[in-house]
Design a protein that fits this description.
There is one protein chain. It is built from 14 helices and no strands.
């Protein structure tokens, strides 16, 4: 990793840490930490293990989708390695605003492992589109069939929900346009090449046009594969629905693990889905702060004041902070393997 990338990563870690500390301060200010810890301790071991499983499954499931699509395009990367890509992506997405840093790092390691740049790009783009598509379908379902309870529960956050859903619709539309129109990708790459040359970030190369053309050819072939293999797309869509709802179900598992039973599982799952849709595209690393604030408002009537903060610590702690720690460990292993490969080649 060169100095420029190291400085950028350090800045991202610093921003993430600052936002995290501010979030912790805002959440726990004026709270009785001993009382919260005692309530957290009431969580059953079965609930903890199931919540941890769901959190890790959520990330690993994306790795399965990457592996499934790569294999269909002739890629030879194993399932565990593809799950590793997913954890790397989760870590860098959590560090960067609007989760923009995950896919570039996934693409870097996929290319390092011998996968084609064009094929890997299409796989990641397809996974991203389907991921957003599932959120959009869920969000529209809530508006059509659960709108009155949704407004009643979200109250002041209902506008944020509509905003988050609208952003996801725009992103899905834009990604579909880029994926299905290779000439748009060619225009973007050419414009980027010219910009880098003008800014003296890259030297003008006589072979750059041929490289772009070769990339577009491979890109087009990969897109054609997805168009002609609808079964593969259906498998990924079904897998993504399962992945998304495993994350929504985690909050109910915390509710159940704390020994509570007055609210139905479906209500809790739908409320957690609404929170995820509202904050998904916000330009804050890990959507920290706003997620906790919205959770506190939306789930107050579900957990009551006694269990609201403990449930937040468990739900958000396991689904995001614990998973970030696991993803950091996986990313560190990838980094060490990358260094060893470079040393062996030198």
């Amino acid at each position: 990793m060169n100095k420029k990338k190291s400085k950028k990563l350090a800045a991202q870690v610093l921003l993430f840490t600052a936002v995290m500390l501010l979030t912790f301060y805002a959440v726990f200010r004026g709270q009785d930490l001993g009382q919260i810890a005692a309530a957290v301790g009431q969580m059953s071991l079965q609930g903890v293990f199931l919540a941890v499983f769901l959190a890790l499954f959520f990330v690993a499931a994306e790795g399965f989708m990457i592996w499934y699509l790569l294999r269909g395009m002739g890629g030879g990367t194993g399932l565990l390695r593809c799950m590793g890509y997913s954890y790397v992506g989760f870590f860098f997405s959590g560090l960067t605003p609007s989760a923009t840093g995950g896919q570039p790092m996934q693409l870097y390691y996929m290319k390092k492992d011998g996968n084609s740049l064009s094929g890997s790009s299409v796989v990641l783009l397809a996974v991203a589109i389907i991921y957003k598509f599932v959120l959009v379908v869920t969000g529209i379902f809530l508006l059509l069939f659960w709108n009155r309870p949704l407004q009643n529960r979200l109250q002041g956050y209902y506008a944020l929900y509509l905003f988050g859903l609208s952003l996801n619709v725009v992103v899905v539309s834009a990604l579909l346009l880029v994926m299905c129109r290779p000439e748009i990708v060619r225009t973007i790459l050419r414009a980027g090449e010219r910009t880098f040359v003008r800014c003296r970030l890259r030297k003008e190369s006589a072979g750059s046009e041929e490289k772009i053309s070769a990339f577009i050819d491979g890109y087009g072939e990969a897109v054609s594969y997805l168009r002609t293999h609808r079964r593969a797309v259906c498998v990924v869509v079904a897998g993504t629905f399962l992945q998304r709802f495993s994350a929504f179900l985690l909050t109910y598992v915390v509710y159940w693990g704390l020994g509570l039973s007055e609210t139905s599982p479906l209500t809790i799952v739908l409320l957690q889905a609404s929170v995820s849709i509202a904050v998904d595209m916000l330009p804050i690393p890990g959507a920290q702060g706003i997620t906790e604030a919205m959770y506190g408002a939306v789930f107050l009537r579900v957990f009551t004041e006694q269990y609201l903060m403990p449930s937040l610590c468990l739900s958000r702690g396991i689904s995001f902070y614990f998973t970030m720690l696991v993803s950091l460990c996986v990313t560190f292993l990838f980094w060490c393997q990358d260094i060893r490969k470079k040393e062996n080649l030198s």
